[in-house]
UniProtKB/TrEMBL annotation, chains A, B:
<dbReference type="GO" id="GO:0071949">
    <property type="term" value="F:FAD binding"/>
</dbReference>
<dbReference type="GO" id="GO:0022904">
    <property type="term" value="P:respiratory electron transport chain"/>
</dbReference>
<keyword id="KW-0285">Flavoprotein</keyword>
<protein>
    <submittedName>
        <fullName>FAD/FMN-containing dehydrogenase</fullName>
    </submittedName>
</protein>
<comment type="similarity">
    <text>Belongs to the FAD-binding oxidoreductase/transferase type 4 family.</text>
</comment>
<dbReference type="InterPro" id="IPR016164">
    <property type="entry name" value="FAD-linked_Oxase-like_C"/>
</dbReference>
<dbReference type="InterPro" id="IPR051264">
    <property type="entry name" value="FAD-oxidored/transferase_4"/>
</dbReference>
<dbReference type="GO" id="GO:0016491">
    <property type="term" value="F:oxidoreductase activity"/>
</dbReference>
<dbReference type="InterPro" id="IPR036318">
    <property type="entry name" value="FAD-bd_PCMH-like_sf"/>
</dbReference>
<dbReference type="Pfam" id="PF01565">
    <property type="entry name" value="FAD_binding_4"/>
</dbReference>
<keyword id="KW-0274">FAD</keyword>
<dbReference type="InterPro" id="IPR016167">
    <property type="entry name" value="FAD-bd_PCMH_sub1"/>
</dbReference>
<keyword id="KW-0560">Oxidoreductase</keyword>
<dbReference type="InterPro" id="IPR016166">
    <property type="entry name" value="FAD-bd_PCMH"/>
</dbReference>
<dbReference type="Pfam" id="PF02913">
    <property type="entry name" value="FAD-oxidase_C"/>
</dbReference>
<dbReference type="InterPro" id="IPR006094">
    <property type="entry name" value="Oxid_FAD_bind_N"/>
</dbReference>
<dbReference type="InterPro" id="IPR004113">
    <property type="entry name" value="FAD-bd_oxidored_4_C"/>
</dbReference>
Length: 458, 458
């Protein structure tokens, strides 16, 4: 894949002057960015995806989003909706001159409805703002990028994170959505009903649609009770099979289990060499299971579960953060070795051990010098496969990992989405009939075909 | 609404002879029912909806479903998919000569995957069979009709029930679906992945689509840990405002809360007069809150919550069943007075007390002799409004209740669906833009327009 350099990007032709003026009339001149002012919006944070934009338009509210989309529809200008730009698969950056619709200014956060445990948030509100909105309530989705990742972007990607086990992904937090179709029509259903069987659940469809169906402008979101004095434990295990067995037992036996995460000696050793982290346990283990739980009885259940295994337990906030850091800093590990390739796959529970054990060999079979760091979520079948490649990144690593995952009945994208990174491999996870229905649904929402046209191709 | 009598229905013309033979060739002569043999399939169990069918076809597997649908598509014969026929809004019975596609024979239940806590079930498996599939695991959705209601039907209606609070509705149980489009194409994604962001989540869309998008033939479903020694408490309260306040507190304070249900003196008195039930508490109360919880600490939390309120607590299975009967038999209550009209609405949490308190007056304003029994789910905003009418059922009751609910920002169907009963009132809950996108999504799935054509009209 050859992408233009930043210099090339900025020299590309811009919008028709008439359209540019129309956009300025809608959002104001200071919110129609062109040329070098688009720089922060045309590259993703991994640096792997860098395109160019005819303009970046920053509406401040739903009405402006409608007007901008109606103009783009009429002019057949492709649009890439963008939230906090923390995506990992190149789904939110322009590729070849699309208009970037940045939703960051839709950042109004309504009052928390304590009885309903809900709040209405604009697309530009960050997940950290949601988590901090009320002292007794928390947001159900916790991801490392929560200080930048926004409501709109995380709905579009159906973000997962470390509490899916307890709270489900973004899709499960949605109690209502306001979204704008490509022709400027508003779909709105925000009253926050927990039960509502009055037609098709299009909010669930928008979750994970990667900006291809409609532009989410607001959401009514559920909040969850804030954990009271949660306990975090990091256990050392001799291998991944033992780790998986213990995690499955934890699911059954630990009351109020919120997270069951893992990492391995490989990734930990890299972090210990390159950061200020110190070893979590007295002696190194091959595999590490991090459990967080909050209910009464959790501590006894954890102790029972741990038996004679080495374990570190964190009670207070600082202690918990210290233990979580071993897991949360794992996305950095591969980057200490080489510009990393980050894959994110899931398999059925019965194949998890096989995946986690063998995926490293699958990679080194096509790139003998590669280093492979695995970590992630045990209980939901999700493994993050971060690769520090030695050979050229020409698709061979992805081919190998995704084909292997498909052979296990798994998904080539557990939580990051398809985006640009995985588009070529979608047929490994979805049949021709499924991709055909995707295309028909997409045409139903966006007949003009202007929304994120490079993403989720057939 | 004038519906044909059973005699009229059976005299209507039948299928073209050529198509009938083709169907016989697919499913066998004993599974193509016509004339009087369709009787059990053309009336819903409330008796309110009675149509006629050109035939009832009972395929035994997915391949036969595909073949039948391909034949119907080619001949432009409308099809009504039918599961256990326990629907309450006339969504699963034919109206005017459609072909009924009965999925009851797709009743294979796969082995329980203990580690994944999942099972694959045919569309004709009942929810009771799912609940009984493994000694340590239960199915997350519990509805009164569980011995007849099937996987296919409850996905199509997104059934709710008394554990939505803990487990969510049917949509939240789905880990994969196999479904057949009207042209016979199979969509299949059954490997049971908890996290899978590879395109549009069409299983969530099929949930609640009332048989209008595709015919669900199988589902991969999550199971939940079976409750260990749950506790049931029925508390007597002086009014609905106090009841709602206590339920909201219970949500926060009772660990492992599974259900928060309510009924009132009105319904209870009718049941006490007409059944063998005896009063739950020493003295009558105006409103009754039923709570079920299972975790360690639940009993103490319930005792703390109850304070000095009158309360009956059930520990063993028989005792719990005795207390649940007060709630579970409420759907019968209105029927002791008159052929009942059963409405099912929800409102935002902040409007629940208003709804539950005033809906009776809203009904008697249009039918002064009507008796109104309310009961249902407190924590999710859902109230079942059962009416024993005195005046003719000509739409006035529905007009009054649904308009009132819409004025509160609520839904005219919390869990039963739209079906035939509520079709005329859909615009109260959904905007023109939403109904337009429904129509476009429907055309994307079923371009021939043969699936349940009378249901979910624009």
């Amino acid at each position: 894949m050859v992408l233009p350099s930043a210099e090339e990007s900025l020299s590309r032709p811009s919008l028709p002057a008439g359209l540019r003026q129309d956009l300025v009339d809608v959002v104001g001149a200071e919110h129609v960015l062109t040329d070098s002012r688009t720089a922060g919006y045309v590259v993703d944070w991994t640096g792997r995806y860098r395109g160019f934009a005819s303009a970046v338009v920053r509406p401040r509210d739903t009405a402006e989003v409608c007007a901008v989309l109606a103009l783009c529809s009429a002019a057949a200008i492709p649009v890439v909706p963008q939230g906090g730009n923390t995506g990992l698969v190149g789904g939110g950056v322009p590729r070849a001159g699309e208009l970037v619709l940045s939703l960051g200014r839709l950042d109004s956060l309504g009052p928390v409805d304590r009885a309903a445990m809900q709040v209405t948030a604009g697309a530009g509100v960050t997940l950290a703002q949601l988590a901090d909105a009320h002292p007794d309530l928390d947001f159900g989705v916790a991801i490392t990028s929560r200080h930048s990742a926004t409501v709109g972007g995380t709905i579009a990607t159906n973000a997962g994170g470390v509490r899916v086990l307890r709270n489900g992904p973004m899709r499960a937090q949605i109690r209502g959505v306001e979204a704008v179709l490509s022709d400027g029509t508003v779909l709105s259903h925000l009253s926050g009903l927990t039960k509502d069987n009055t037609g098709y659940d299009y909010p669930s469809l928008l979750a994970g649609s990667e900006g291809t169906l409609a532009v989410v402008t607001k959401a009514r979101l559920r909040l969850v009770p804030r954990l009271r004095d949660p306990i975090v434990a990091v256990l050392g295990l001799p291998g991944l099979a033992e780790l998986h067995g213990l995690a499955i037992r934890a699911l059954q036996e630990v009351p109020g289990l919120v997270s069951a995460e893992f990492f391995t000696r490989t990734g930990l050793d890299i972090l210990l060499r390159n950061t200020d982290l110190t070893p979590p346990l007295d002696a190194p283990a091959e595999a590490y299971l991090l459990l967080e739980a909050s209910d009464a009885g959790a501590l006894e259940a954890l102790a029972e579960l741990a038996g004679n295994l080495p374990v570190a337990v964190g009670h207070g906030a600082a202690d918990r953060a210290r233990l979580w850091a071993y897991r949360e800093r794992h996305p950095e590990a591969a980057g200490f070795l080489a510009p990393p390739l980050k894959l994110d796959v899931s398999v059925p529970a019965g194949r998890w051990v096989e995946l986690a054990t063998s995926v490293g060999d699958v990679v080194t079979a096509v790139d003998p010098g590669a280093r492979v760091i695995t970590f992630g979520h045990v209980a939901d079948g999700n493994v993050h496969v971060n690769i520090a490649p030695a050979a050229e990144v020409d698709g061979r690593h992805q081919d190998a990992v995704f084909s292997y995952v498909a052979s296990l009945g798994g998904s080539i994208s557990a939580e990051h989405g398809i985006g640009a990174l995985k588009a070529d491999w979608l047929p490994l996870s979805r049949t021709a009939a499924e991709r055909e229905i995707f295309a028909r649904v997409r045409a139903a929402f966006d007949p003009a075909g202007i929304l994120n046209p490079g993403i989720l191709p057939r």
